[in-house]
Design goal:
Elements lengths: L3 E2 L2 H8 L4 H23 L6 E6 L12 E9 L7 E9 L9 E7 L4 E7 H20 L6 E5 L3 H13 L4 E5 L3 H15 L3 E3 L3 H5 L4 E4 L21 E4 L6 H6 L1 E4 L13 H6 L10 H7 L11 E4 L7 H14 L4 E2 L4
Helix pairs in contact: 1-10, 2-3, 2-4, 2-9, 3-4, 3-10
C-alpha cells in the first residue's frame, strides 16, 4: 500500500463525527491522546521531539515568506506504536492559507511516507486540544458556562476541545463582527446541540463565565479584549493569542505547558514581566500537574490562566489518529511518490 493523500473533506469525515454525540466523543478521545502524550514527555523519554525550521531572514512566523520548512519527529505513546514524523512545507504567499500547509506523516521505522494531511483542518485539533486538557484539569468541577472569543477555525477547535473536556449548560460566543459571531454560534449550535448565545460585547460574554477560551485573530498591537474586573472568582482562562492585558496576568495563576518553554516566548506584556521576575503566581506547569495528578489551584476562588504556548508535539498523535481512522473508513487517495 502506497502513501495516501487526504482532502479537507476526508479529514472531517475521518474524525469529526456525524452527529453531536459522536463529535463530543471524538473530542474527548483526542484530549485523552494529547494528555497521554504530555505525560509521556514529562516522564523524560528520549527522542520524543525534534524540531527544526528554516525561516528566511526578516520573516516572522506569521508573515509570508518565500519558503518555510518545519520538521518534527516524535515517538507516539505505547511500545507497539511507530515513530511518526511530519513535515510542514509552506510556499510563497501561502502561509496559514487553507491550501498552503500540508502534514506529511512518515513511519521512520521503514522510512515510508504514510500520508499527506491538509494542515488547515489538522492544526485546530492540536491547538485546541491541549487547551482542552487544561480545562479538564484546571477548571472548577462545577463549571457550567463556557465563553469562546473568536469565530475562526481555531475558535472552533477551542470550542470542540472544551466541550470534550466538560459538560456545559451554556456556551457564549463573542467575535467583533456581528455576522461572524452569529454564524459561528449557529454552527456550534448545529454541530454540538448546545445552548449557544451570541454575546454583544466582551464584557457580556465574560461576566459570570466559568471557562474562557481566547482564540481570536488578535496581534500584540491590538487592544486586550479581556479585563480582569469582568472575571468571576474561580474562572479558568485558556489563550492561544494576545488578548490579555497586564491586569489579567497580575490576578491569575499562570500555568504553562512546560515552564522552560516560557523563556523563548515572545508574548507581551507577559514576556517582559517574566524576564523581570514580575509574575506573582507562576506554575506549576501542565506536565507537573499531569504527572502528580493534582490541580494548580490554591483555592476554588483562584483564577487560573493556561498559556497554550506550544502545540508541536500534540500534532503527532492527532495526525496518526486521522490517518488510521481515515484508512479504516476507506478514505484518501493513494499516490505514487516515484
Amino acid at each position: 500500500m502506497g502513501p495516501v493523500l487526504f482532502t479537507h473533506d476526508e479529514v472531517r469525515k475521518a474524525v469529526d463525527g456525524d452527529d453531536p454525540q459522536e463529535r463530543i466523543a471524538n473530542s474527548t478521545k483526542s484530549l485523552d491522546m494529547i494528555e497521554e502524550t504530555i505525560r509521556f514527555l514529562a516522564a523524560g523519554h528520549p527522542n520524543d521531539v525534534r524540531a527544526a525550521a528554516y525561516i528566511p531572514p526578516g520573516v516572522s512566523h506569521y508573515s509570508v515568506g518565500k519558503a518555510r520548512l518545519q520538521a518534527h519527529v516524535a515517538t507516539t505513546v505505547g511500545d507497539d506504536s511507530p515513530m511518526v514524523c511530519y513535515v510542514s512545507v509552506v510556499g510563497t504567499g501561502m502561509t496559514f492559507h487553507k491550501n498552503g500547509v500540508w502534514r506529511m506523516v512518515w513511519d521512520p521505522n521503514t522510512l515510508a511516507l504514510l500520508c499527506m494531511l491538509p494542515d488547515y483542518y489538522v492544526q485546530p485539533w492540536a491547538v485546541g486540544g491541549h487547551a482542552g486538557v487544561a480545562t479538564r484539569w484546571l477548571a472548577r468541577k462545577d463549571a457550567k458556562v463556557l465563553t469562546i472569543f473568536g469565530s475562526s477555525r481555531h475558535a472552533y477547535g477551542a470550542l470542540r476541545a472544551n466541550v470534550g473536556a466538560r459538560s456545559f449548560d451554556e456556551v457564549r460566543i463573542y467575535s467583533p463582527t456581528p455576522e461572524n459571531r452569529k454564524a459561528f454560534a449557529e454552527e456550534v449550535r448545529r454541530d454540538f446541540d448546545l445552548n449557544v448565545v451570541a454575546s454583544e460585547s466582551p464584557r457580556e460574554a465574560v461576566e459570570g463565565a466559568d471557562v474562557i477560551s481566547l482564540a481570536s485573530r488578535s496581534t500584540p498591537e491590538d487592544e486586550p479584549v479581556l479585563k480582569a474586573e469582568w472575571l468571576s472568582p474561580g474562572a479558568h482562562i485558556n489563550t492561544i493569542t494576545y488578548e490579555l492585558g497586564p491586569d489579567v496576568i497580575e490576578r491569575a495563576r499562570i500555568v504553562p505547558q512546560e515552564t522552560e518553554e516560557l523563556r523563548g516566548l515572545k508574548w507581551e506584556p507577559f514576556s517582559s514581566r517574566l524576564n523581570a521576575g514580575e509574575i506573582p503566581k507562576l506554575g506549576p506547569d501542565m506536565q507537573s500537574i499531569l504527572t502528580s495528578n493534582t490541580t494548580a489551584r490554591a483555592s476554588e476562588d483562584e483564577i487560573t490562566l493556561y498559556l497554550a504556548n506550544s502545540s508541536v508535539v500534540h500534532s503527532v498523535p492527532i495526525a496518526q489518529w486521522i490517518y488510521e481512522e481515515g484508512r479504516a473508513k476507506g478514505l484518501g487517495q493513494e499516490f505514487d511518490v516515484g
